[in-house]
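Key idea: predict the complex, not the pieces.
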Amino acid sequence: MNEDLEEYLRTLLPQTKKWVKEIEQSARKDHIPIMDPVSMQFVTQLIQLQKPEAILEIGTAIGYSALRMAESYRHTKVTTIERDVDRYYQAKENVKRLNKERQIEIIYGDALDILPSLPHESYEMIFIDAAKGQYKHFFELSHSLLKNNGIILSDNVLFRGYVMNPENINHSRYNKMVKKLQEYNQFISGHPNYSTSIIPIGDGVAISIKM
Ligand code: SAH
Ligand code: MG
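Result:
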C-alpha cells in the first residue's frame, strides 16, 4: 500500500491508552500480526455507529482487537476464537489483566469446528481475521450466525498490495493465499445477500452488510 499515506494517517490517530501501546509493542516484538492501528480506529468507529450487542471474532491472537472492540462500546460482548494454544493463553492473560472477563469470552479451538456450534442470528458484527486461505469457509459458516443488517468485517483482504499486484509477490508461499483472497474478494463483492465495500486502509478491510 502507499506507505507515505499510511504514515500520515498514523500521525492523525487519537492518543491511545498505555495498555494499547504495550500490546502493540509486544505484538511487534513477537511478530504477531495484530490489526493495523489505522484500520483499528475505523473498526472502533463502526462499532460506535452500529452499537452491536454481540460481536464474534475469528482469530484472537493475543486479544488486541478483541480488547479494542470491547473498549469501543462498553455494552458489547465479544466472543473470540483462537486455535493456537500459546496465543489463547496470552489472550486470556491480557483480558484478565485488563479486567475485561465479563465482556470478552475466548474460545479455544479451530473456528471451522466451533462456528457450527454457535447460536444462529446472534451477532450484529463478525470479524474475520484468521487463516487467509479459509476466509470463504469462515464467511459461509458466519452467514447463519449473523443477524439481518449485521456486518461481516474481513481484515487483510488486500494483503500487502499483492492481491491487486500478484506479480510483486516475493515469496512463493504467498501465491496460493493471494489467489484465495482474490477469489474471496470476488465472492463477497458479488454475493447476492451482502453489500460490500473494500476499504484500502491498513492491510485492506472489507465491510459486508447482510441485506
Ligand atoms: N484479530 C487479532 C489478530 C489475529 S492474527 C488482532 O488484530 O489482534 C490471526 C490469528 O488467527 C492467529 O493467532 C491464528 O492462530 C488464528 N487462526 C488462524 N486460523 C484459525 C482457525 N481456523 N481457527 C481459529 N483461529 C485461527
Ligand atoms: Mg489481520
